[in-house]
């Protein structure tokens, strides 16, 4: 896979252009743009703001959002998925547009949520006949039986709202741009939602699912966090390198439940010959990321959630294949927001593991409900059943949750009033 998608990236970095890219409202996303100058300009602008040296100022926003997420989760543990989703939407709105939201029903949060539906549901290869019969896109939405056409109209409208509505409010802060530059700015900021929100949601749900089904993993995480962080504060980014086992849990979650099982399809620009096989130009290449992450020759017992596989002698083992080398893409198409996503995963997972007991759900009889790990078959895959019980580890842990959330809100209010 590396030989084809990394070493030959100049010829394997195109994207197959299907009608569903536009119909799902995803035309603005550089991840689906054809390889060329327009894509390069988008990627260059995105990289300027999300390269490792640039994301430091965003960490305070990520950390504050994580603290407020903990309190919401403490109060409404059954809303796990909704709260994780809103947490990352909140950060994207703040970083991308300097818009503050603290309510999942906020107008901008709704816009972002609606815009994410199209790419997730609409870009599964072969799901819609329009990919094989492009003329179907021209059937008007009002035509009897045009269910898909009405869905596509909804998705495209949602994508346009995401691109334009928050931008209109933030435009004065973004400085003057030519009309073409403005389009790139709109696209790039919106990509922060489409490219990261749902993928980080899936990975975080995988962590909760994994530790709830493996209490021994949570016990080890608690022991490490107690030793490194202590009972009176939450983990912060200064603890990142010291929390070896927490980092291993995140790596194992990315491996165990593959967020994009077949990646995002690549395509060849020119004819090629690979190990004796002729590959014509415009050939679609599907990287089977799921198979790589569940290869028994690389990961023993690949279906088992076992963070220890990434640790040797108390340190992360660099000889074990790192899932991050696969799940964020390949070659020129590797995700430019991966460092921002990794920071978001770390701070939210570390904080949640530190203060919560996360266990299997209980039935009405008080006995654990059997949860069978499974995965959805959409472009971005989610744990099929991530039900779990979430409650503070202790009264002291709940005090830490609420005090940090209060401080985060106060700091947010001060920053907002000081504008």
Automatic annotation (TrEMBL):
Q: Does the keyword Heme apply?
A: yes
Extract the PROSITE patterns matched here.
CYTOCHROME_P450
The answer to whether keyword Electron transport applies is no
Could you name the domain of life of the organism this protein comes from? Answer: Eukaryota
Its principal location?
Answer: membrane
Subcellular localization, as worded in the UniProt entry = Membrane
Q: Which GO terms describe its cellular component?
A: membrane
Cite the CDD domains for this sequence. Answer: CYP64-like (cd11065)
Q: Identify the InterPro entries for this entry.
A: Cyt_P450, Cyt_P450_CS, Cyt_P450_E_grp-I, Cyt_P450_sf, Cytochrome_P450_fung
From the Swiss-Prot or TrEMBL record, what is one GO molecular function term?
Answer: oxidoreductase activity, acting on paired donors, with incorporation or reduction of molecular oxygen
Q: Where does heme bind?
A: 335
- A Pfam match: p450
Its record classes its membrane topology as: Single-pass membrane protein
Cofactor(s) for this UniProt protein? heme
**Keywords, ordered alphabetically:** Heme, Iron, Membrane, Metal-binding, Monooxygenase, Oxidoreductase, Transmembrane, Transmembrane helix
Pathway listed: Secondary metabolite biosynthesis
Q: Hey, which family's this protein in?
A: Belongs to the cytochrome P450 family.
Q: Which PANTHER family match?
A: P450, PUTATIVE (EUROFUNG)-RELATED, P450, PUTATIVE (EUROFUNG)-RELATED-RELATED
Question: What is this protein's record name?
Answer: Cytochrome P450
Which organism encodes this protein? Dichomitus squalens
């Amino acid at each position: 896979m590396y030989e084809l998608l990394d070493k030959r990236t100049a010829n394997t970095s195109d994207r197959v252009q299907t009608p569903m890219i536009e119909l799902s409202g995803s035309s603005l996303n550089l991840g689906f743009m054809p390889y060329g100058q327009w894509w390069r300009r988008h990627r260059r602008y995105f990289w300027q703001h999300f390269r490792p040296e640039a994301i430091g100022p965003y960490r305070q926003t990520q950390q504050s959002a994580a603290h407020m997420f903990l309190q919401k989760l403490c109060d409404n543990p059954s809303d796990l998925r909704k709260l994780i989703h809103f947490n990352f939407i909140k950060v994207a709105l703040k970083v991308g547009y300097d818009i503050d939201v603290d309510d999942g029903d906020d107008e901008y949060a709704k816009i972002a949520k609606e815009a994410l539906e199209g790419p997730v549901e609409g870009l599964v290869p072969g799901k819609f006949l329009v990919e094989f019969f492009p003329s179907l896109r021209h059937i008007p939405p009002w035509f009897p039986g045009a269910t898909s056409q009405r869905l596509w109209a909804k998705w495209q409208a949602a994508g346009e709202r995401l691109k334009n509505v928050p931008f209109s409010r933030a435009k004065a802060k973004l400085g003057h741009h030519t009309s073409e530059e403005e389009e790139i700015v709109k696209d790039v900021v919106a990509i922060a939602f489409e490219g990261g929100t749902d993928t980080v949601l899936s990975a975080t749900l995988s962590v909760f699912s994994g530790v709830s089904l493996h209490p021994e993993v949570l016990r080890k995480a608690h022991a490490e966090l107690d030793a490194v962080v202590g009972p009176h504060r939450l983990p912060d980014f200064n603890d990142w390198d010291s929390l070896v086992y927490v980092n291993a849990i995140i790596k194992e979650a990315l491996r165990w439940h593959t967020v994009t099982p077949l990646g995002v399809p690549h395509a060849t620009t020119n004819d090629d010959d690979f190990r004796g096989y002729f590959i014509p130009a415009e050939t679609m290449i599907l990287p089977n990321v799921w198979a790589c992450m569940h290869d028994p020759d690389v990961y023993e017992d690949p279906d088992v959630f076992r963070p220890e596989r990434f640790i040797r002698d108390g340190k992360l083992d660099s000889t074990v294949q790192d899932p991050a080398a696969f799940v964020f893409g390949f070659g020129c198409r590797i995700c430019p927001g991966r460092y921002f996503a990794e920071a978001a995963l770390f701070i939210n997972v570390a904080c949640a593991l530190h203060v919560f007991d996360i266990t299997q759900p209980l039935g009405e009889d008080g006995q654990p409900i059997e949860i069978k790990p499974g995965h959805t078959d959409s472009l971005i895959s989610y744990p099929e059943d991530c039900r779990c019980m979430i409650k503070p580890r202790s009264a002291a842990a709940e005090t830490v949750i609420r005090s940090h959330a209060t401080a985060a809100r106060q700091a947010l209010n001060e920053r907002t009033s000081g504008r």
